[in-house]
Amino acid sequence: MDKNFPQEKSTMSHWGAFNATVLDGKIVSVAPFPEDPFPSRIPELLPKAVTHPTRVKTPSIRKEWLKTRGHQSQSLRGDDSFVEMPWDEALDIAATAIDETRNQIGNEAIFGGSYGWASAGRFHHAGTQVHRFLNSIGGYVSSRGTYSAGTAETLIPHVLGRPFFDVTFNAQNSWETISRHTETLVMFGGINQKNSQVSLGGITRHQTRDWLQKFSDSGMNLINISPQRSDTTSNARWLPIIPGTDTAMMLGIAHFLETQDLVDRDFLARCTEGYEVFQKYLLGDSDGEAKDCRWAAEICGIAEATICDLAKIMASTRCLITVAWSLQRAEFGEQPFWMATVLAAMLGQIGLPGGGIGYGYGAIAGVGNAYANLKSLALPEGVNAVTEFIPVARIADMLLHGGEEYEFNGVKRTYPNIELVYWCGGNPFHHHQDLNRLRLAWQKPRTIIVHEPWWTSTARHADIVFPATTPYEREDISYALGDSFVFHMPQLIDPVGNARDDYQIFSALAKRLDVEGEFTEGRDSEQWLEHIYSNFCDANEGLVPDAPTLSELREKNWVELSLAKKERDQMAFLDFRADPSKNPLRTPSGRIEIFSSTIEEFGYDDCRGHPTWHEPSEWLGADDSAEFPLHLVSPQPPDKLHSQMECVISDIEGARPAPLTIHPIDASDRSLNDGDIACAFNDRGKTLVKVLISDSIRKGVVSLCTGAWFCLDEDGVDQQGNPNTLTRDKGTSRLGQGSTAHTALVQVKALG
Length: 752
Ligand SMILES: Nc1nc2c(c(=O)[nH]1)N[C@H]1C(S)=C(S)[C@@H](COP(=O)(O)OP(=O)(O)OC[C@H]3O[C@@H](n4cnc5c(=O)[nH]c(N)nc54)[C@H](O)[C@@H]3O)O[C@H]1N2
Ligand SMILES: Nc1nc2c(c(=O)[nH]1)N[C@H]1C(S)=C(S)[C@@H](COP(=O)(O)OP(=O)(O)OC[C@H]3O[C@@H](n4cnc5c(=O)[nH]c(N)nc54)[C@H](O)[C@@H]3O)O[C@H]1N2
Ligand SMILES: [Mo]
What we know:
The chain is of the alpha/beta class and 752 residues long.
């Protein structure tokens, strides 16, 4: 490659495809991918991010850890300085620490759950790399599910008999089908355009904005039930609900349907199980409290008449109910997802085109696209000899309570005792709830190893930090669910500093631990690319007859697989609806479980056998909300993906601390002006924020996006505005044990 001549190449990222211009060994500019109707601007951060001063330049080991190799630690992780080391020395030290742990204590003491989005490239996918490496050395304690939708991943198989993401991608109405058939679109938590900028593994054509525009142009009745108007297109009617109360509002609608005889009883009889048990609860026969619209209105803050009217419209039109994933990232997050499904069943529209229920449209860009679900393009992880796992969001509980019992989805489990944590491709000090608690929990293990391109908060809380390349410093390929393109991701620039690919780092460690053959199978990166790409083509034979060879793909840069882009109508549960006994669901009853005897038999008071309203421990209706009177929601950031490339944003003058959206009345009650730096706090922590006054948020609610790099001053105040300084670290319930990030009360005060 002539370094003095600008080269333009296309590549893929989680936030979409883009073209990068490289000159003199540097990415000098990025431009939208021409096929993309609504490209994300996130890639514009890239040129500065890849060479940012916060890149980890060389392997670094924490000073105190080095003295005793973690056998005694005098200073808190996160407060210490690091010693830079040559690669060989640092790899020797890490290999010895791993070897000691597995030989002296056992592989059950190694936590490699290592959650995080990492890169869009499928070979250099950091999470897969670390899992494969740890499998090759005898296994590790893994994590199950996602922060995104862990609760739904546990619940939905009980209710619909299918894995949650299978329903999301293969059994929901496609955009096209909604556009043709839906008359009323009731969006709990909105359908968020800012979130549909990204998709796990990438997205080529961003379509959500145009679909929403089309829906609105066609006169579809769009209803946004959310604490923030901005959670969907401004053309929607906004019902500003109190956070955490959607289940109550849905019950109110259900009660109206039931008492006005607007329920499809034939559908309930043919296609569902246990309505009569739920009905007793709904009508108050089982607990003395009818869940009518007035009852619902008092809880959820939407007027009684509005709820009744909405119920009428839903029953008299083709209606699709959608729930944002955020609803289940809250205490009792199982309930709104289950209740929304029950409501759709009562309307009798599940299995009708454009009707029923849909989960997470707008959460990521791929949802709603009706592309064929190809078998994945991935590096095989191998087999984990350790069967122990935790629900992903229970990491701090595990570290703090090793050896103690907890419950998850009907099983009593014991938290393992962890001595070594290996993290690669995620940022728990951005993503986990109650970061001050995580900081304490994080002191427990003997050794923490992290691979990172940047000095993130997690890197700063590690003992051994290996500098990893970014996707632009190595060759890779991408294919994502909900997309029909395969991309070659060329190496654009040389590795920055002494960074190495995760694969190189693990290969070097594997050699030192005598498992090089198991880990590499004798292949270098290029041979692995050949191998996984040809496996992908073989596994999808028939669907990808036009797939080029890898060398052709290198030449072409990207290709759209014509057959992968199948018929664009996709409807949900058609066969099941037509003949439920011939096409049963894989639930115990073969039908939609409005009442689940399986869940009932677990005996959980926080998740019963049918959808139930539970009063959250923190919400605006709580008796003790006086001290912390504002409900904090912490959505995903509009300007980037999680904490990735935060270094560039935080360099922009005035961008940090992060903006906290607050209602004008709440701001004036606190003498806060737009642009003021204020402190948001509760019993769990304190963070600086920048006041952003807006009437597009419900009074009493404040919103602070995720993504700032958690950074405490000497008084323990986060300087950047990471909402997880304030969020609550408890599971949704004993069933799902998911993240409850959206359940948090706070106070905000002016500084000084
Ligand atoms: N309060 C609150 N908290 C939340 C949420 C919320 O709604 N509210 N949402 C949650 C959700 S849904 C999610 S998915 C999580 C997201 O949390 P994460 O996925 O942990 O967030 P990212 O910032 O994407 O972290 C990826 C990290 O990988 C690094 N990386 C990128 N490429 C590579 C690579 O090739 N190799 C290596 N070694 N590292 C690489 C990046 O620099 C970055 O630090 O946050 C969760 N946290
Ligand atoms: N730009 C960008 N896009 C992203 C990401 C990113 O980091 N940046 N991350 C991606 C990831 S990993 C995920 S999992 C998805 C997440 O997708 P979602 O879960 O849909 O997104 P959030 O942004 O967490 O929340 C959406 C909205 O839900 C509302 N909300 C909160 N609590 C409640 C409630 O109790 N009731 C109702 N009705 N509404 C409520 C809030 O107002 C919030 O703005 O986003 C993805 N998209
Ligand atoms: Mo997520």
